[in-house]
User: Which sequence fits this backbone?
């Protein structure tokens, strides 16, 4: 299978994504661009109530115009390389635990495999045993 190089891509930044570095051209086969493959989500999970963050999608066959599809929605996507895309995770949008599908769609319509992102219950806040305990105002009414 012969490969040819695409022209230098244009980066489409996401408002919350770090500034991308110049990227290498995307490999193509004789039939066109390679189908995208998603291998890793970084991070692979988060908890309800966590602060917003950037989600890195790692794999291969990404195009400068590739789109991350997260929970069925096209997301603003920053292209870093043929193997890395980034989008922002706006955590206040998520109210409860869930398992969410994540894939990549290339501009020619080819879609990658799907990986799941686990949205976990809120993290328990450990109690500080040194903190003074205060009686509840309701206890005073008993």
Assistant:
């Amino acid at each position: 299978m012969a490969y040819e190089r695409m022209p230098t891509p244009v980066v489409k930044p996401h408002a919350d994504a770090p500034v991308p570095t110049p990227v290498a051209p995307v490999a193509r086969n004789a039939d066109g661009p390679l189908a995208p493959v998603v291998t890793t989500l970084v991070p692979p999970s988060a908890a309800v109530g966590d602060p917003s963050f950037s989600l890195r999608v790692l794999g291969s066959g990404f195009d400068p115009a590739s789109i991350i599809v997260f929970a069925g929605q096209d997301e603003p996507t920053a292209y870093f390389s043929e193997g890395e895309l980034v989008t922002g995770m706006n955590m206040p949008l998520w109210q409860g635990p869930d398992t969410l599908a994540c894939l990549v769609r290339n501009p020619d319509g080819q879609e990658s495999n799907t990986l799941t992102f686990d949205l976990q219950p809120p993290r328990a806040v450990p109690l500080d045993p040194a903190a003074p305990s205060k009686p509840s105002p309701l206890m005073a009414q008993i």
Observations:
- The two ends are 81 Å apart (CA to CA).
